[in-house]
Design goal:
globular; transcription cis-regulatory region binding; Transcription factor domain-containing protein; 57% helix; 20 helices; transcription; transcription regulation; mainly alpha; DNA-binding transcription factor activity, RNA polymerase II-specific
């Protein structure tokens, strides 16, 4: 039972939540002057969750208390059929700092769906005027005219925001539709100006709205309204429109938020989402092909896209390195998601730029077999939850001729990267610096507070990045070792290599000899990418 009792007092924990946590995730605000005793009387479940998330100095306590919180939720909602703002706000705070548990587990999805269900049962998602015209659940029916408090409006917007931000990274949650009434709630908060943090609420929701639009543009699973689709503008026209909209939003940030590091991360991540799917080949201009060749034919300049992607990735990293390391432990879950996304984008950059763009960080640097093994310390999960699922989705193969053209485009791009310094990133140096800052987080907290800091989250994150660096170095060295003959090694990768070659002999009317340069471009890149995928299999974040 030791892991169920917080070490700090309720006063200290409430102060940590009010001053450190809710200032970055401002959808549940505790008014100044509210004592723990008062909050316990009016919002007992919310106080229980605040004790949990504010026990950040002791990660064991956070995870221990989470079991009691989940038990409370189960009994209250499923056994006692309770519906209350207290439950909704508590779940929202839990979701806001859920990255101290494994993000891929079904519990996050369950909690997010429960929050959406509570919003619907309490009728918080409908305009009060229209609410009187429809039947309501008995638990949510009001006696007289209904009005919305600002804390209810924040809760509604927070549920949408958390569901949307998690959906974009995991592709697991159904999107919660953003409504006109939500937009009215946003305007009401802006007009009321009850708390300074409401300005951040408005910014977070606005940037998430646009990020979701960008995601839908690149997704083959975009919503369909059943109406005949008008003629779509070209890909680059849409990208430029998104860029202008993002720039306008960013320029309109209130002066007191312009130095907000995490808000800048959200904007930079949205810029990355504009460009990276094109480099990944996930955009479908002809609904059939997923290649650089098809994008080029549709008017997309791969060189320009990569240049913008590189500049944005550099800006993201530069901004992140300015974030004070002591604030890492108070980071909300959406910001942590952006960090995970950036790590994925660094890997994407390496894969597109190629092994020749990776400069070894030191003479004689080699990656040991131990460093390249999957980490044996997975993030502990909530009790009784199965291991993380594989979230990767299979992609249909492109035709041989399209692959060949794509290889030529990629070869040309890589030549430009080698020749132009503005297209280069010291990827190994970036990983080193970020890992060093992760390792410094706990040390800085201990030095600042003079207390033990029993939370190794960022030490594990540093270990993860150092492993990523070792794997990139190993990939670069293995490809370089075969560069002289441009042939893949005859080892365990042969099965992958042979599988990738199979379509070559199935092209009607053509033989391998008809493509005299294929062995030094497409063939080698197929093996190179297969090797990259095998070596850089990331452990779950």
């Amino acid at each position: 039972m030791k892991d169920l009792v917080p070490v700090e007092s309720d006063e200290t924990l409430l102060s940590i939540y009010r001053n450190q946590l809710s200032s970055l995730s401002p959808f549940v605000i505790i008014p100044a002057g509210t004592s723990p005793r008062q909050l316990q009387a009016s919002r007992p479940f919310l106080m229980k969750v605040i004790r949990m998330v504010a026990s950040v100095r002791h990660l064991r306590l956070v995870r221990g208390q989470s079991r009691a919180v989940m038990e409370y939720i189960s009994n209250a909602i499923f056994m006692r059929s309770e519906r209350s703002l207290d439950l909704l706000q508590g779940i929202l705070v839990f979701l806001g700092f859920y990255h101290y548990h494994c993000m891929a587990h079904a519990q996050f999805n369950n909690l997010a769906r429960l929050a959406v269900s509570l919003v619907e049962d309490l009728d918080l998602n409908t305009c009060p005027k229209s609410q009187q015209k429809k039947s309501q659940l008995p638990l949510a029916r009001a006696e007289g005219p209904v009005s919305r408090t600002n804390e209810e409006k924040r809760a509604l917007l927070g549920v949408w925001y958390m569901s949307s931000s998690a959906s974009l990274i995991g592709n697991q949650l159904a999107f919660t539709r953003y409504t006109k009434y939500m937009d009215q709630c946003l305007k009401d908060l802006d007009d009321a100006k009850e708390y300074k943090t409401d300005e951040l609420v408005i910014q977070l929701v606005r940037i998430q709205q646009l990020t979701e639009k960008i995601f839908h543009f690149h997704s083959s699973d975009s919503p369909v309204d059943g109406q005949p689709a008008p003629r779509e503008p070209s890909t680059m026209v849409r990208i430029e429109a998104f860029r202008v909209e993002l720039d306008n939003l960013r320029n309109a940030i209130p002066s007191n938020l312009k130095s907000n590091y995490y808000l800048s991360c959200y904007y930079n991540s949205s810029y990355l989402r504009m460009f990276e799917p094109l480099l990944a080949g996930s955009h479908l201009p002809d609904a059939k092909s997923q290649s650089l060749a098809s994008l080029s034919l549709s008017g997309v300049s791969i060189s320009d896209v990569f240049s913008d992607f590189t500049a944005t990735l550099k800006a993201w990293v530069e901004n992140w390195l300015a974030v004070p390391v002591c604030s890492y432990f108070y980071m909300p879950q959406p910001a942590y998601i952006q960090l995970v996304h950036c790590a994925m984008m660094l890997s994407r950059w390496v894969r597109v730029a190629g092994p020749s763009a990776v400069k070894l960080s030191g003479a004689g640097t080699t990656a040991s077999q131990k460093e390249c093994m999957i980490l044996s310390r997975p993030t502990p999960a909530l009790s009784g939850v199965p291991s993380c699922p594989d979230l990767s989705l299979p992609k249909p193969p492109a035709s041989l001729s399209t692959q060949v053209e794509s290889a030529q485009i990629l070869s040309t791009l890589r030549a430009k990267i080698t020749a132009q310094s503005n297209l280069q990133i010291d990827i190994l140096g970036v990983l080193d610096i970020m890992a060093a800052r992760f390792e410094a987080a706990k040390k800085e907290m201990v030095a600042a507070q003079g207390l033990d800091w029993e939370n190794d989250t960022w030490d594990l994150a540093a270990e993860h990045l150092r492993m990523k660096k070792a794997r990139i170095e190993k990939w670069r060295e293995m490809v370089a070792a075969e560069g002289e003959g441009r042939r893949p090694p005859t080892d365990v990768h042969d099965s992958i290599y042979e599988e990738s070659r199979e379509p070559m002999n199935m092209l009607p009317g053509r033989s391998v000899e008809d493509f005299g340069w294929i062995d030094c471009d497409w063939d080698n890149m197929q093996w190179e990418n297969a090797l990259f995928d095998e070596i850089l299999q990331d452990i779950h974040t």
